[in-house]
Amino acid sequence: MREHLVLIGNGMAGVRLVEEILERNPERYDITIIGKECYPNYNRIMLSNVLQNKMTVDEIITNPYTWYEENNITLINEDPAVGIDTANKMITSEKGLKIPYDKLVFATGSHPFILPIPGSQKDGVVAFRTIDDTAEMMEAAGKHKKAVVIGGGLLGLEAAKGLQLQGMDVTIVHLAKWLMETQLDERAGKLLQGDLEAQGLKFLLEYATTEIVGDERVTGLRFKDGTTIDTDLVVMSIGIRPAAELAREAGLEVNRGIVVNDFMETNLPAIYAIGECVEHDGKTYGLVAPLFEQGKVLADVLTGIEAKPYQGSKTFTSLKVSGCDLYSAGNIMDTEGMQSIEAFDGVNRNYKKVFIKDNRIEGIVLYGETADGNRYYNMMKKGQQIADLQSIAILQASGEDAGSDDVVAWDDEETVCGCNGVTKGDIIRGIRDKGLSNVAEVGKITKAGTSCGKCKPQIQTLLEHELGEGVTASTGICSCTDLNRDQVMTQIYAKHLTTSSDVFKELHFASPEGCAKCRPAVNFYLNVAFPTEHKDERQSRYVNERMHANIQKDGTFSVIPRMRGGQTNPQQLLQIAKVAEKYSVPLVKVTGSQRIGLYGVKKQDLPAIWKELDMVSAQAYAKAFRSVKTCVGKNFCRFGTQDSMGLGIKLEERFEFIDTPHKFKVGVSACPRSCVESGVKDFGIICVENGYQIYIGGNGGTEVKEAQLLTTVETEEEVIEYCGALLQYYRETGIYAERTAPWVERLGFDAVKHILSDAAKRKDLIVALDVATAVKRKDPWHEIVGDRDIQEKLYSIDRRELVTVGD
């Protein structure tokens, strides 16, 4: 007989516990969940996105009713527990149901705090806690004009922004001197206020509300200094209190919350508690990540797995308001013994402050540029010594964020998604054990990336590391927008949008920063649309393109220098051998594209290796014109009809370093025997006695596609012209991450052939290609070897070990 587990509370903490139990042992319990609201489990963090019109209620439902049915869970909704007989292990619901239990878990959450002042019960006074609260606020916004939010904390600001987006005139009333005073210091709080004021929000700081005025419905507020303000809606967002009344009545020990030990056990046998209703070691938590950490411990306890004791949580905060990126974690109070490292960029309104005690990070405040948040957070959690680390970097290369790309090298227990307490190990195990292949699937299974979404690039990086290029979907535009590729490009041209942030804002993407899927796509589309105006956004590229090297399974990288047409010489071979020996390269391999690749290279060795090789990059990591594979040709082969190597070299010299929607591979075979498999290349040439047969749209990847004969030409110059025209037409019309095979199929081979067969159109395309690539075509490693800042920031190289071209 299975034991009966009853969970009081259908919120995020409790249901996450049930998910963890089902993951460990789905046959252990018969489970009943008792909920107060009329909805299945939903993501409360996302309510601000609903209010800000970024999501619908359906989209924030985490576990629909079908999930309960599929897992044989009894859900009792809209009927909260009102009594517990601990002696007989029986729960009574509000409607009189009697529910027995063998083990009981309290996950009752918290109540929003309502100011105990006259008028607080009037119509038009709401909290911001539930779907119903959100619906009431949206309904009020449709009928009324003015709103006041009492409380300048995280939820208050998100509520205020949402009401403003609903069309209301919004004022935030806050008792403290600056906003979010428990998470931000004064400078960051003032920066935040300035940005929000620029968006149209109003503020009354250091104001104490004493009365809510009006007859039946609120009409205004009165403050301690006697002044008043008119309003049609008041939103209380000034904190929460653990919902522990039922537990106290049942005889559980309660201080501020239900008191639990390190294994989430209460003072009564067979009764446990997790979440916002809990007090552990004198602390209560109102953020999600600690609640999930508690749930993992209790899931181990309830399934008989040896559990690591819960030791409390390091918490962090991130604001979901467009144009206001902030990150706060740990202790930011200037207590005794606390020191700080502070950097303020007044030009770009970026601010960083790290609080230090005993050479360890105790707290973090970031505003404007928050990419380093997770890195600092993990250093804080581990108690990492920082004495040997450089403290401040100024005027580093654009897009070269120090350390944020190193998620592959993190320990498995380090946190990737702070909102939901998901570690790198959780994500890696999901990818390996459950076959997860994209960010959405990772979010569904692990919850990573489903809250603020700022960790999605790191999730994408882990997917790329585990799965390689196969992780990239072929559509290019993600769930941030309903617009397809053509619609996005049309709007980019029509509105003359020249930055990704402009695209996300003007085209109303759901995420104001985009996501790991659309950022690289939009960056590419802007490069194509306005090549001379758009500055390539390195931080929007996938990790391989940011690092200019393929990341390998163990976190090392590959070095693959270009050998045009597959041709090399003794000097190059000697240099490659010397470098491989000097840097103890574990694997030296001839690649499938007739290059010599060095595999297993340490990240910090990359710049020095490229300097010593003195060769250009084959861009074997990029969505770009790759290599031209050739045979030896008529100069050596008795079957060869043309100089395939010479043509291959000319093609590489003409088109190398040009970005394309996906990798673009070329093959030149000197005779119809096609030793280089020209028939499965994006652009394939088969040399014949009277000239060159050109094939397009081949793919030798996971789904083999045979290239189709486009035409036969007489000269090498015509081959190069057709290749350039095809490249530009593919660049202008291809969906990002779409190979030429599906591109030709989507557009229709006859339509593509019609364009390329027109000599005037070919010439126009070549001109456009030359304009587009004149500025951007360059060997990336030549730039890196000559730039000490990039080496230091992107490759974590000690300044004493930096290399330059002149060394």
TrEMBL record:
Residues 317-383 form the NADH-rubredoxin oxidoreductase C-terminal domain. The keyword Cell wall biogenesis/degradation does not apply. GO terms for molecular function: 2 iron, 2 sulfur cluster binding; 4 iron, 4 sulfur cluster binding; flavin adenine dinucleotide binding; heme binding; metal ion binding; NADP binding; nitrite reductase activity. Residues 416-464, 477-526 form the BFD-like [2Fe-2S]-binding domain. Its cofactor is siroheme; [4Fe-4S] cluster; FAD; [2Fe-2S] cluster. Keywords: 2Fe-2S, 4Fe-4S, FAD, Flavoprotein, Heme, Iron, Iron-sulfur, Metal-binding, Nitrate assimilation, Oxidoreductase. Residues 623-760 form the Nitrite/sulphite reductase 4Fe-4S domain. Pathway: Nitrogen metabolism; nitrate reduction (assimilation). Residues 4-278 form the FAD/NAD(P)-binding domain. InterPro entries: BFD-like_2Fe2S-bd_dom, BFD-like_2Fe2S-bd_dom_sf, FAD/NAD-bd_sf, FAD/NAD-binding_dom, FAD/NAD-linked_Rdtase_dimer_sf, NasD-like, NiRdtase/SiRdtase_haem-b_fer, Nit/Sulf_reduc_fer-like_dom_sf. The keyword Metal-binding applies. Binds 1 siroheme per subunit. [4Fe-4S] cluster binds at C631, C637, C671, C675. Siroheme binds at C675. Residues 551-615 form the Nitrite/Sulfite reductase ferredoxin-like domain. Transmembrane segments: none annotated. GO terms for biological process: nitrate assimilation. PANTHER family: NITRITE REDUCTASE (NADH) LARGE SUBUNIT. Belongs to the nitrite and sulfite reductase 4Fe-4S domain family. NCBIfam families: nitri_red_nirB. This is Nitrite reductase (NADH) large subunit. It comes from Trichococcus collinsii.
